[in-house]
Amino acid sequence: MLNTQNVVLKMTAGRKDQFPRDGKVQIALSGRSNVGKSSLINTVLGRKSFARTSAQPGKTITINFYEVDKKLYLVDLPGYGYARRSADSRRVWASLTNDYLEAGTMQMIFQLIDLKVGPTEDDYMMIEWLNANKVPYVVVATKSDKLNVTTRKANYEALVNHPLFNPPYTDAPVPVILFSSQTGVGRNDLLTILSETLK
Ligand SMILES: Nc1nc2c(ncn2[C@@H]2O[C@H](COP(=O)(O)OP(=O)(O)O)[C@@H](O)[C@H]2O)c(=O)[nH]1
Ligand SMILES: [Mg+2]
Questions:
Q1: How does residue 12 score in pLDDT terms, banded at 50, 70 and 90?
Q2: Is 1 contained in some domain?
Q3: Which of 55, 80, 103, 129 has the greatest number of CB atoms lying within 10 Å of its CB?
Q4: CA 138 from centroid of its chain's CA atoms
Q5: Per residue in 80-103, pLDDT tens?
Q6: Based on the structure, what is the number of domains in the chain?
């Protein structure tokens, strides 16, 4: 079991030589800006505001490594798809993100997708990269509280049945976790997945 009370922001990395390479399991969170990554970290860890949630998405380009129970890192990748980002800052984003993904230190990715919005063009780029490189990942459908039951079900089914999350694009169907940081739905599923990566 994972003691989520014991959590430390171990590193805020702006360069690849700052990435931890201590052999601990790394689970990285990927998604567009504002999809709910920081809120998910807070909810999973049972903290109100450990990871910063922000009304100004995509301002800082760093990778935050949260060490949980001295056993694993939750890795908060910088969000993509932030429209007002400058060309310079896009380049910084791409280079830092590529450095992390190519380091190959992550065991698994949580790919966050806003359940109301569905996958965006940027999400497709990321998902195709994950599929091509056979990186284990699960899809986390965020902000599910914002939808009524009918739309929630329909949008969830659309993700589950999406071709990119199923063979032949993937080896096996990719799990889709219904999530809300507001209601806490999906928190236990994510904790179970985290514990399983330690086995
Ligand atoms: N209704 C609702 N709003 C959420 C949820 N998760 C995040 N938000 C809101 O969405 C915005 C962006 O969240 P944040 O966690 O900072 O996204 P990030 O940019 O991916 O880290 C904030 O205003 C959050 O309060 C959720 O599960 N339900
Ligand atoms: Mg954030």
A1: very high
A2: no
A3: 80
A4: 9
A5: 877 667 888 888 888 999 999 999
A6: 1
Contact 11, 19 (CB under 8 A): yes
pTM of the model: 0.94
Q: In what order do the strands lie in the sheet with 7-13?
A: 7-13, 63-68, 72-76, 25-30, 108-114, 137-142, 176-178
**Segments forming the whole domain that contains residue 29:** 7-197
Examine residue 2 and state whether it is found in any structural domain, yes or no. Answer: no
Q: Which CATH number do you get for residue 108?
A: 3.40.50.300
Who lines ligand 1 at CB under 6 A? 31, 33-39, 53-54, 57, 79, 142-143, 145-146, 180-182
Q: How far apart are the first and last CA of the chain?
A: 10
In angstroms, what is the span from residue 168 Cα to ligand 2's centroid? 32
